[in-house]
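# nightly structure sweep
# worker-07 picked up a monomer target from the shared queue
# config: single-sequence mode, recycle default, output format = structure tokens
# input follows
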Amino acid sequence: MVKKIWEIYKIQLFVSLTLVIALIATNIINRPTYNALIILGVFFGTFFLDLDYVVYAYFLDPEKSFSKTLRGFVEHKDLSGALNHIYYNKKEVKEKTLNSVLFQIVLAGAALFVVSSTSSFFVKALVLSTFANSIYKMAIYYFDGKADQWFWSLKKTPSENGILIYGVIMFMILVYSVTLF
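# output follows
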């Protein structure tokens, strides 16, 4: 199961590892407990956006075959099978709520709010990791020529220059949030 997770999430785990290094490096208080909370938060944030498929299977369209199969894997506590099913059938789910421009904008605001508050290191790391992986997934959608699926909630997909400017702004918000950490 670990090999399969590594195959599916290797780039996202590298994004998260980079974030862990940056957060621990910018953390003035060097205590093992805080570092462990940061590592756990970033790890869980790596997989947070995939909850979109669970939301779809249980709430948005529970009658689709994708949803029924995923619920079967979850009911039998077969995490590996569920991840495989999501990975190989993710194209069946077109309108994702967590993998979209609207949720990413909410994440950007949440990242700025949470890192400037007195929230725990776990929550801060979770939000920043989810935001960083959201930026990565947006880039994947863009380079695969599927930007319209990322921006599905807007009336019109932005131009290529608009998407690039938007991506740079999101990345700058991430970098600024990391410096506030």
